[in-house]
Amino acid sequence: MFTGLVETKGTVDRIASAATDTRLVIRGELGPEALALGESIAVDGVCLTVASIVKPGPGLCVFEADASAETLAKTTIGDLKPGVHVNLERAMPLGGRMGGHIVSGHVDGVATIAEKTPVGGAVKVAFQLPKELVRYVAPKGSICVSGVSLTVNNVSGDRFDVFLVPHTREKTSLDALPVGARVNVEVDLLARYVARLLETASTSPTSDTSDAAWTERLQRAGYL
Length: 224
Description:
Blueprint: E1 8-17, E2 22-29, E3 40-43, E4 46-55, E5 60-67, H1 69-74, E6 85-90, E7 109-119, E8 122-128, E9 142-145, E10 148-151, E11 154-156, E12 159-164, H2 166-171, E13 182-187, H3 189-203, H4 209-220
Antiparallel strand pairs: 1-2, 1-6, 2-5, 3-4, 3-6, 4-5, 7-8, 7-13, 8-12, 9-10, 9-13, 11-12
Helix pairs in contact: 3-4
């Protein structure tokens, strides 16, 4: 589990592609605690497993992680090239401060940067979403874009926009991405489960008045 608060911008050192999967070699400054073999790490929002440690740290570390055929097909990991910056975050420790929002590292889809507009020291960025993800995105809700926890500013059709404040622009890779670039998107976990609850309530042959009660509670709480 992650928070979407990027620890550092890492760099892809090397990529070794096999018939169906890819091994990434990545370096980055990941703080005082040495990286451990087998731990989870979010690379541009994709939860990967540390398969090998070239340099464990503390401080600068170099590690290898494998991306399966499914990961390559469903995320932007297959687009990476040597020298490209990636957002890195280690898994949140139990009892750690929850500064962003709950992020699983399981990407829901790939969006495209549609527009970038400077606004003072910030940049307003509009993204075009796959249509099947639109219902999960709400104004002022949370969304994870390439590993970065962001607040949705507005939603219009299949687009949503966010503001990249100066800190986010400096500490993550998002500011350098051009219009047309592809990004990994993970929708808010709560939105996903609320949608699933409503789907099962409306299609289940055994649904009863308790389903209506749940719908009413969600409406009162502002989720619907």
